[in-house]
Structure formats: structure tokens, C-alpha cells
Amino acid sequence: MFFSSEDMPHSAAKAQDTTISKAVVSTQSTGDTTISKGVVQSGDIEAFLVVKINDKEPQRYWCVLRGMVLILYAGNYDKRSKRELPILGYDVLTPQPEDKVDPVSTLKLYHRNMVPWYLTFTNDVEKDRWYEILTKAASL
Question: Where would a tag sit more exposed on the chain, N or C end, judged by fewer CB atoms within 10 A?
């Protein structure tokens, strides 16, 4: 049985048909993240993370993955981004000792022609969730 999103409250309207590039695909929700045949839908994963770029001091940002772009905001209500990183072609790795970051709570976004970014998480569940989504978005 199919329901329109008008028949259900927002929280119940998790599975629906979505048109992407003139093709209708079924979407599936996993928690707060919607994956449609491996494509991350815009704004589906967001959190406060500590981000280290270059050898600069790590800073706390509101991070949003929109499509295949990681967007950093100063806060979760900001309209203007501080930084953006198109992650297509990046590798999502566990940092090595020479990276001088905590490998247990940190992921490394690496591209051979770019400066690596390090994302530090507050818990393993959040890290695993971001790892899965970032890996899919970076490899499309």
C-alpha cells in the first residue's frame, strides 16, 4: 500500500519515491540518513565535529554532507559556510601515527593532490555512521 507524504507525518514519511535525473528510485531511511541506491541525499548527515586542516589548530564546526560536498559552518544555525570540500575522489582512511591525531576517534579525508582533512568524532557510533556515508559519497 502506498501513502503520499501528505497522509503521514514527516517522521513517518521515511520511505518514498524520489525523482533523480528523470529516474524514479526508491529511497530507504537508516536513522537520520537517507541513501538512495548509494547516493546520499542532501543534508542527510550533520553534526558538530572537530576538524583539522593542514597543521592548523583543530576547530569545532557544524558539518553537513550535502550530496558529495562536505560543508563546514561555524554553528548549526549559520546560513553562510566557512569551508566546503567536494569529497568525490577522496579516500576515507584511519589516520596513521605520523598524522599526529587520535586514530581511534578520527577519520582522514585524503586526496593525493589536496591537503588532508581530519574529522574527530565524539563516539564510535557517530564515527562509523560518517565513515559509511562519506565512503559511499566519495566513491560515486
Answer: N
